Amino acid sequence: MIDFDRERRIQDAKDFIAEGGSETLASVRFDIPQSTLSHRVHGSKSRSEAQSNARKLSDAEEQKLVDWILLEEVCGRAPTKKQVRQMAEALLGPEGAIGKHWIDRFIGRHDKIHTKKGRVMPRERLEARDRNEVHEFFPLVAQIRAKYNIQPANEYNMDETGVQEGEQADGTVVGSSETARTRLGESGATSWVSIIEYIGFTYGRGVD
Question: What value, to the nearest 5°, has the Cα angle with vertex 178 and ends 176 and 183?
Fold first, then answer.
């Protein structure tokens, strides 16, 4: 029977050595015989790897995981590292085990994804975003300004921020490498308190 706890400790020891630690210290810290650890570091496979390579995702499975991450972000649900790990272990099956630092190596292997900051926003706002409508907004503003002869003194620049009340919070997630940040749709267990800030040409700044 495969000892998955031992295999996990061996992988953690190999990660420790790869980051500059000595084999002797890794052997003591992770309770693995130094001879076994030395063989593994220099290319020997575990019994489970030799039989079914169960610990590691195949290239096709890793690509499925990348596609899932990108799709989740598009849907406003960019996953955390913990959630990516859970999905990877689900792909491996009930006896799957991945190393402590596997998630960082996985992200490093795939140029399409990276870690980024995620900001929670009301799901209604997230789903209402439309790139074409944003592009059409500015010509429309210019037309209204000209039609009604609106002067700069009567124009205000407005921005909206807010405070998330509930369990969900901003944090680091995994998503597309094409953007530095992403938006996360709030769950039903949270509420959003909006703060509207505006700046006028003549009367200055205000907050509602």
Answer: 60
